[in-house]
Design brief:
The complex is a heterotrimer of chains A (300), B (438) and C (295).
Chain A: H1 3-6, H2 13-44, E1 47-48, E2 56-57, H3 61-68, H4 70-101, H5 109-121, H6 124-135, H7 141-150, H8 161-189, H9 193-201, H10 206-217, H11 219-234, H12 238-243, H13 255-265, H14 269-294
Antiparallel strand pairs in A: 1-2
Chain B: H1 2-11, H2 17-22, E1 36-44, H3 47-55, H4 60-63, E2 68-76, H5 79-92, E3 99-103, H6 115-119, H7 124-127, E4 141-142, E5 145-146, E6 149-150, E7 155-161, H8 162-168, H9 177-191, E8 196-199, H10 203-217, H11 233-248, E9 251-254, H12 260-267, E10 273-277, H13 279-288, E11 296-299, E12 312-313, E13 317-321, H14 328-339, H15 342-352, H16 365-368, E14 371-372, E15 378-379, H17 380-389, H18 400-415, H19 421-435
Parallel strand pairs in B: 1-2, 1-3, 8-9
Antiparallel strand pairs in B: 3-13, 4-5, 6-13, 7-10, 7-11, 7-12, 14-15
Helix pairs in contact in B: 3-15, 9-11, 10-11, 10-18, 12-13, 18-19
Chain C: H1 3-7, H2 17-22, H3 25-52, H4 57-60, H5 75-83, H6 86-117, H7 123-132, H8 138-151, H9 157-160, H10 169-182, H11 185-193, H12 198-209, H13 211-227, H14 230-235, H15 244-253, H16 259-279, H17 281-293
Chain lengths: 300, 438, 295
């Protein structure tokens, strides 16, 4: 860490206190709007409360109920599917696209990048609406195209439990691949060109160069993206909420939707808070574990 | 021990929150306005009610003789959000409206944890004097008290394309569902057209469609005392019938009966008949197929061979008055005048084709003489009147939204022929019982 | 890596003519074909939305689907703008997004600078706490946060939509990475010798050098606030404070699913977001580059 050598000499008081002042807004907001809510959530999770009147203390009742609740189980399972998919498919897909965009002398690179990033720019509402139009089982664009091309088009995309999950997953793929591509591309462009030149002199082909140089050099980016993606997909809400409302049945329900539904559609705040606590334990543990395993966010 | 821990939590709380939570002060909204000008704030999801309520203060037939002069300020909010926001605003001690329109299948959310009691005025004093004249108070009754007043009787009838029925040789007076589905199967095989639809999208639509048929057959989701009544011979029979209809193509699966797919099916004349409540004529047929004006007709629903009713009901919106506000008394008066008088009910039909909830009005000349151009100038109250007199009662209870989400998936499987009807119902009920708060 | 090096983000090392020859032509054609196909997949839904927004209600779902509206009509737009307070929603959305963005950019670069260029007791622990908070899903805190904000009387939409979110950990992390890599310590030392106060150094010396990263952070923050749905859904109950997503959500849930109006509204709402993105896209790439690469 180079800053250590030239760090401001602890002379004047203001210099000593400056960094604390600079980082304090975060910690004030973090305490007020994150730490306190987490504590309050733990308290709420031990109560039965609809929001009006006083919370009634019921001990571990919410947790007992939660672990018997098939909907919660379903939401955990669905969320796991989304998350695994995001890591196993979205991540590699964006890496490949980045590799393609990083091709030497590629024309229109800026335009492609702009296009692939577009879903992040758009409101989730329009995305869900258009996907609804496209994937409608009876009158959707996709079935019409399939019908015209291959003569079959009767897939109930949004009303069959299996296909509905597929559509949510496709939406995740479509929405986030371009975003991740930018990170990978950025990472690739900061790999020193000499590494490739040396490899080429040794006679390494494009595939070799990709596996021997690009991938290892990208490890820090990949690790950061993987952890971010893990946490983001674990809290997926908008895609299933807007596209399928968690249906058909509860086959696309996510944990975030489960919490929202319990709290704000069923007025069971204590129960929702309990689900939040469980989610916190799982996601935070996974996030921290993978972060330290991959060495993300270390102060150097 | 238990008490000690609770006190501890109250005092210290996990984050000092316990005390804050109980310190919910209710807004003292100033002294009650006893007469004179009053501005009422109203939340609803339906532009039809917005039109009706904003026009009502100018109609002397409605507000003549009132101590107040009204202005109404309407805000449009999606049905599910109205309940959420009423509760959220109350929790946060932020401004609430004076009147709120609660869609019938959202109402169970206020039936638990004393929410209705703490937010709304008890309107039983208005409804009780009307006795059996007033329909559809059961769904809004909590512990014997009525907290909201229905806007639309929502009588389900069968809408059908008279031109295509004639062309395809389908009799207009088919007596039973069984016969109708048999003919429908032949029609579907020959032409690809369907004589009815089932919803296969979100849980609400699936369960509502099922409930509509179940009520007609004489079954119910809950009994009068709020006990579960889903599993019955009637419900199994209804599910079996729906599955059979879907299998033969007589019934068309549509994700959203009010959305684009239904619009396309209507427009393409693929859906040539459907059993739906009166309001579907406005929001389903007219909105999506304006060019088919004059081609549609309505009739009472073919009966089930095994018994039941010739009408059913689905949907509806009731208005509740928020309590403890300066405008509360005025709002109760306004709701009474606009909703529970003959004049009000007639004006309401004029504004949005909402059917009267006072049962004797159906036979009065004011209603009997109404003809509907979209339905080929049919004297429509002959149909609605017959339906209103044979309407099944619909009961709901606090767990209804949970029930809806538990039943949605299994019902869909049964309707699509992938599960046995009885098994599906039992599975849905098992899920419901495991989730219901003890 | 210095700021100037990052700013030339336009591409990989400039290829020499000799090297370019090595890539066989068919492979190159395949590459372009793939990229164009992918671009089509990305644009198709947007084009479909754009085209559908000019169709009348019953045409939107016509079967077989038609790409070009026939008849084309601006009826959806005029009905939206005349019947709904759409411009209020836009004002609310852009206002909240802009104010948040200014605050986010300032507070994150300040904190990022604090972490990057100072040594102080507890730095490691504080940094770890800050970084760990990235692993707390919003759904975990949404319920208690709502209660807290409500009970403390902070539920006014203009406060609740902005204040809790003005110092996001992701932004601080990104700014710290960038600051560490692009601000030479010598400049800071020189400024200190000149007697500048610590904040003045940040304001006059550091901030201007952080420009590309500030742009990236601004895009990230603006889009996040502009398109946010879950928190506004929970905290905004009064329609006079609706943001665009809330207004459109209400239309979509209203009787008869007014997707014709929602389509028109979504297209209009996308314009500021796309504009911000296109204006600041160069900075977005370079800022993210530094933020993520060397973690």
């Amino acid at each position: 860490m180079s800053a250590a050598t030239t760090a401001p000499r602890p002379g004047s008081g203001t210099t000593r206190w400056a960094p604390y002042l600079f980082i304090s807004p975060f910690f004030v907001l973090f305490t007020l709007f994150m730490l306190v809510p987490i504590g309050a959530g733990v308290y709420l999770s031990l109560t039965d409360w609809a929001g009006l009147g006083s919370p009634e203390y019921i001990g571990s009742g919410n947790y007992t109920r939660l672990f018997q609740d098939p909907s919660f189980g379903a939401s955990l399972g669905n969320t796991a599917i989304y998350t695994v998919f995001a890591l196993a498919v979205v991540l590699p897909a964006s890496l490949l696209i980045a590799q393609a965009l990083n091709a030497r002398g590629l024309k229109l690179r800026d335009l492609f990048r702009l296009t692939y990033f577009m879903p992040v720019v758009l409101s989730p509402i329009i995305i869900a609406l258009v996907f609804g139009l496209i994937f409608d089982g009876e009158y959707g664009l996709l079935n019409a195209v399939l019908e015209a091309l291959f003569g079959f088009g009767g897939v109930s995309w949004l009303t069959d439990p299996f296909w509905a999950r597929v559509v949510v997953v496709v939406l995740v793929l479509w929405r986030w691949t371009g975003y991740l591509t930018i990170f990978f591309l950025a990472g690739m462009q900061s790999i020193p060109g000499e590494l490739y030149e040396a490899a080429e002199v040794d006679g390494a082909g494009p595939a070799r160069r990709f596996f021997a140089i690009t991938l290892p050099q990208l490890k820090p980016v990949t690790a950061f993206i993987a952890v971010t993606m893990l946490v983001n997909t674990a809290q997926i809400f908008e895609e299933p909420f807007l596209l399928t409302q968690g249906g058909p049945g509860e086959s696309t329900l996510s944990v975030s939707m489960f919490i929202y539904r319990a709290a704000f559609q069923r007025q069971e705040l204590g129960y929702a808070a309990a689900a939040g606590v469980v989610m916190f334990i799982i996601v935070f543990a996974l996030g921290r574990l993978s972060s330290s395993a991959l060495g993300v966010g270390r102060t150097r | 021990m238990n008490l000690d821990r609770r006190q501890l939590l109250r005092l210290g709380g996990a984050a000092g929150l316990g005390a804050a939570l109980t310190a919910c002060t209710s807004a003292g909204d100033g002294p009650a306005i006893a007469s004179g000008p009053v501005d009422l704030k109203l939340w609803t999801h339906d532009p039809g009610y917005a039109d009706y309520f904003t026009a009502a203060p100018a109609d002397p037939a409605l507000v003549g003789g009132s101590a107040w002069t009204y202005t109404v300020d309407v805000t449009s909010i999606a049905p599910a959000d109205i309940v959420s926001r009423l509760v959220n605003q109350a929790v946060a001690n932020r401004p609430l409206p004076n009147l709120a329109g609660l869609v019938i299948d959202q109402y169970p959310r206020v039936m638990r944890a004393d929410i209705a009691q703490s937010l709304f005025v008890d309107l039983t004093d208005l409804t009780e004097p009307l006795g059996d004249r007033l329909l559809k108070t059961q769904p809004y009754t909590v512990d014997g008290k009525v907290y909201a007043i229905e806007s639309d009787n929502s009588v389900s009838v069968m809408f059908y394309r008279a031109d295509l029925f004639a062309e395809l040789g389908i009799p207009e007076d088919i007596a039973t569902w069984e016969e109708l589905l048999e003919i429908g199967a032949d029609v579907a095989a020959a032409t690809g057209r369907a004589i009815g639809m089932v919803a296969d999208g979100d849980n609400g639509s699936i369960v509502n469609g099922f409930t509509q048929m179940l009520l007609q057959r004489g079954g119910n989701l809950y009994d009068e005392d709020g006990g579960l009544a889903v599993l019955s011979d009637e419900s199994i029979e209804v599910l079996r019938l729906m599955a059979e209809g879907v299998r033969t193509g007589a019934l068309l699966s549509i994700a959203d009966p009010y959305g684009g797919a239904a619009a396309a099916a209507l427009k393409g004349s693929k859906l040539i008949a459907t059993v739906m409540p009166n309001w579907y004529k406005v929001y389903g047929l007219e909105a999506n197929a304006p060019d088919q004006s004059g081609l549609w007709r309505a009739r009472t629903i073919p009966a089930f061979a095994g018994g039941g009713h010739i009408a059913s009901t689905m949907g509806g919106t009731a208005f509740a008055v928020l309590k403890d506000q300066a405008e509360t008394d005025a709002a109760v008066d306004f709701l009474q005048r606009t909703y529970l008088t003959s004049e009000g009910q007639l004006a309401r039909y004029g504004a949005g084709a909402y059917l009267p909830t006072l049962v004797d009005l159906y036979d009065t000349p004011e209603f009997q003489d109404i003809t509907d151009p979209y339905l080929g100038d049919q004297r429509i109250f002959e149909v609605y009147g017959a339906g209103a007199k044979d309407m099944p009662d619909f009961y709901q209870a606090a767990g209804a939204s949970l029930l809806r989400d538990s039943l949605g998936g299994p019902l869909l499987r049964a309707i699509n022929g992938r599960a046995d009807p009885e098994e599906a119902l039992r599975e849905g009920l098992r899920a419901y019982e495991r989730q219901a708060p003890a | 890596m210095t700021a100037t090096a990052i700013r030339t983000e336009a591409g990989a090392p400039t290829p020499s003519p000799e090297r370019r020859r090595r890539r066989p032509r068919p492979a190159r054609a395949g590459l372009y074909a793939t990229l164009f196909l992918l671009a089509a997949v990305y644009l198709a839904p947007l084009v479909w939305a754009l085209s559908s927004s000019f169709k009348n209600r019953s045409e939107i779902f016509s079967f077989p689907p038609r790409l070009w509206p026939d008849p084309a009509t601006v009826d959806n737009y005029t009905r939206l703008l005349s019947g709904q307070p759409f411009w209020n929603w836009m004002l609310m959305s852009t206002g909240v997004a802009l104010v948040s963005t200014v605050a986010v950019v300032f507070l994150c670069s300040l904190a990022g600078y604090g972490f990057a260029k100072y040594e102080f007791r507890g730095k490691r622990l504080l940094f770890d706490v800050m970084f760990s908070s990235l692993a707390i899903p919003f759904a975990v805190i949404v319920v208690p946060l709502f209660i807290l904000v409500a009970k403390l009387g902070l539920a006014h939409p203009l406060f609740a939509l902005i204040v809790p979110w003005v110092a996001p950990a992701f932004g601080i992390f990104m700014m710290r990475q960038y600051t560490e890599q692009s601000i030479p310590d010598e400049i800071l030392d020189a400024a200190r010798i000149d007697g500048c106060s610590e904040f003045r150094i940040f304001w006059t010396v550091v901030l201007p050098l952080l420009r590309p990263a500030l742009g990236a952070l601004a895009v990230w923050s603006f889009l996040g606030a502009y398109n946010n749905l879950l928190w506004p859904l929970v905290i905004v109950s009064e329609p006079e404070y609706y943001t665009v997503p809330l207004g459109l959500q209400a239309l979509f849930g209203a009787e008869g699913r007014q997707y014709d109006l929602v389509l028109a509204g979504s297209i209009l709402a996308a314009i500021p977001a796309i504009a911000v993105f296109i204006l600041l896209r160069k900075q977005l790439v370079s800022g993210l580059t530094a933020g993520a690469v060397k973690s």
